[in-house]
Design brief:
Structural class: mainly alpha
Number of strands: 0
Amino acid sequence: MEFVVKIVSVAVGGACGAVARYLINVSPLAAIFAKFPLPTFFINVVGSFLVGFLVVLLADKLIVSENLRLALIVGFLGAFTTFSTFELELFELSKEREYVIALIYLIVSILIGFVGIISGVMLAKRL
């Protein structure tokens, strides 16, 4: 029964993360740049920050159930972050011969995503 609760926790978190990702993709944020995939970039940076923040906060700072950690980190952030979409967008940009935009997108996504992880960890450690 405990295993079923864990599965349900991940599923509920995943459903919420998928809906949050969808809402960002249909928001006015999506229309700001014509070619640069800003919503996915935003999702990946915010997701990176939240992973770093929640891993420290929920493991070191707060006493929470394993089910809540699973729901938030594995479920919500697993569905919310969009690495596979990121890869597909890079492929599409390359296919359209938008090599400079693809390279910029690749570099800033990885670098700023990494900064997001570090920032989340540092903020959580200060709490």
